[in-house]
Structure prediction request, 268 residues.
Amino acid sequence: MKANPLISIITVVYNGELVLNATLNSAINQSYKNIELVIIDGGSTDNTLEVAHHFDNYIGTLVSEKDNGIYDAMNKGIKAAKGDWLYFLNAGDSFYNNQVLQSIFGNNLPMQILFIYGKVQTINEPTGVDYVTGKKVTFTDFYSHYPICHQATFTHRMAFEKIGTFSTGYKLAADTEWFVRLFKQNENNTNYINSIIAYYDIQGTTYHKRMLGYKEYLTFGDIHFPLFIAFKNRILYPIIWVKVKLIRLFTGTKLFALYRKYKFKPTT
Prediction:
């Protein structure tokens, strides 16, 4: 695979004037300079576009129009991107440090690699117990949870050409459904790196609509997983529902904070 590939950094944003500047600065301040910014704006009514135009020297494509949700916007970004590798750095996200891209793309990658994934550092954890998460996974790891965080992934454009883009019928879990398709068909073309890629705001939309996301997970599980796995996950649905309710009930308590400290190794 060629050295010094062009990296398309795709940013999806809607009314993000307060966070977009920091996100785009996180991209252009990378020591690796062969990048383009692809900004997909959902027709913002604030000063988002004014902020974006401060980065015109780095922008390959800027689209501002209404979309049919975040995955529709991300698909627009895929179509517009000119890079060999694509990365989604949506408004409010940021790279972990300025060396992330150089550490990955500064050297030649094996020809067969279509997908690279690593770790993320959580932020905005309701208990204040932030942590690093991410590990090497296989297709079977998707049978029970979401093992990869989108902010930790880089995708070669050929991967989208081989298996398609995001399924917009899913509103919260289309990225995980895409990962499932990828690992089901091309697990040998993936590569895990033991590095922190980005900061991950844990209280995103999926966090607050967890059971809706889980219903989507069950739906694509029926399609992609073995029958007994899909059946087991549906049987477990009431237990997951109770668990989520308990988490919501105890999130603001000291007891829950102790639980999180026990479960995860804090980074602060």
In short: The chain has one domain: 7-263.
